[in-house]
# Entry
Amino acid sequence: MLVNGKRLLEDARDKGYAVGAFNVNNMEIVQAIIEAAEETQSPCILQASQGAIKYAGLDFLFALAKTAAEITTVPVAIHLDHGTDFDQIVQCIRAGFSSIMIDASKYPLEENIERTKRVVEIAKPINVTVEAELGKIGGTEDQIVVDERDATYTDPEEAKIFVEKTGVDSLAVAVGTAHGVYKGEPKLDFDRIEALSKAVSCPLVLHGSSGVPYDALKKAISLGISKVNIDTDLRLSFTDGLKDFLKENRDNFDPRKILGPARENMKKAVIEKMEVFGSVGKAWR
Ligand code: 13P
# Structure
């Protein structure tokens, strides 16, 4: 069931769990996530980055996600991850995305507010959810690279002003995570999450959540994170499944035989995340 992202996140915030937002690039990935959601009765978000859209094409990727959302009874939102281009955001809304992210976090506060507001103005009237980012989350997410030295944590006072001025539905915050594979163990700033959650009226989003210890994720959720983004761990589980199969079956050349185990391995990883996020059994009709 295709739903608006705002409704998903508000239900999560009210009940103290988080919705998993999983990055999709092809059919097997979409299927792995949706099968996991169906099996565990977890609401979920299928999200496409600009890189994924470049790889698969907007029409193909949206059609896959829409089919998945329509054949399952669990609530699913289709979301644009880290949209930086206004025209592409409009294209995604026209295609039928139920949620989009405008990432203008690289700009100074006032410009971030203006760019975000422009998107809220076109999305809100047609019931499309808007996520924005304040502070700078380090690491690499497809085409967006933020050097560790440029990463800055989100300030709660600024966040309050930002949410009031823009009217966004959810806010991605920089609290110690980074996109991609961690070199050491990430340290989350729990006090900051708590302060942010008190300061802003909308649900909070955690990016760069792959590789974060599960205890830390659970604590972040208990303090007010309502959407948890996962990409890298899914890639790892997919390619692990694929490599394991090829190690045992070097001469196999049937893509279905090769991609099937990758999909299965990813599905297991998604179920594990859903259990950690507390979204299992939270699907509503
Ligand atoms: P990871 O790749 O670290 O899981 O981050 C995903 C993400 O935040 C997508 O926006």
Summary: The mean pLDDT is 96.
